[in-house]
Write a structure and sequence with these properties.
This protein has about 150 residues and is mainly α. It has a domain of about 100 residues. The protein is about 55% helix and about 5% strand. It contains three helices and two strands; from the N terminus they run ββααα. The chain has a two-stranded antiparallel sheet. A hairpin with a 6-residue loop joins strand 1 and strand 2. The longest helix has about 35 residues. It is elongated, with a radius of gyration of 19 Å. GO terms for molecular function: copper ion transmembrane transporter activity. Its main location: membrane. InterPro entries: Cop_transporter (IPR007274).
Length: about 150
């Protein structure tokens, strides 16, 4: 029976029927896995942002006609099938899939799993995304967990 409210306990089914925990060790390893995967999600987002900037700046002769450093005012000069753009598209698909898997994991309604994922996203954001990457505004992420 699937839980429809938050509960606390070591028994949880995560994503697949074969991923069930019944011991405290299994539950702890599940929480560590959730933490690591959600931090890794933030790491992949950084690489996706870099690929987007590389795609937007690539192609040679991409001078900013307005003199204002605003991403929405730049004309994209990279080709439709450039390597950076294709890699960015692949990264978007991977990140979307991973984000939805994290969302479905939270929907197990286990309080520990929820906290592990939120803490993993928070620590991953602090470690990988704070700094110069925050100056870039990216609005194409469909996942609510980013």
């Amino acid at each position: 029976m699937m839980h429809m409210t938050f509960y606390w306990g070591r028994t949880v089914t995560v994503l697949f029927d074969s991923w069930k925990t019944s011991s405290w060790l299994g539950y702890a390893l599940t929480l560590v896995a959730c933490f690591v995967v959600s931090a890794f999600y933030q790491y992949l987002e950084v690489w996706r942002f870099r690929l987007i900037r590389l795609s937007a700046a690539g192609g040679g002769g991409g001078a900013n006609p307005t003199g204002i450093d605003a991403p929405l005012l730049h004309r994209k000069v990279a080709g439709k099938y450039s390597a950076a753009r294709i890699a960015g598209t692949v990264m978007f698909g991977v990140n979307s899939g991973l984000g939805y898997m994290l969302m479905l994991t939270v929907m197990s309604f286990n309080g520990g799993v929820f906290l592990a994922i939120v803490l993993g996203l928070t620590v991953g954001y602090f470690v990988f995304r704070t700094g110069i990457e925050e100056a870039t505004v990216i609005v194409d992420n469909p996942c609510a967990c980013a």
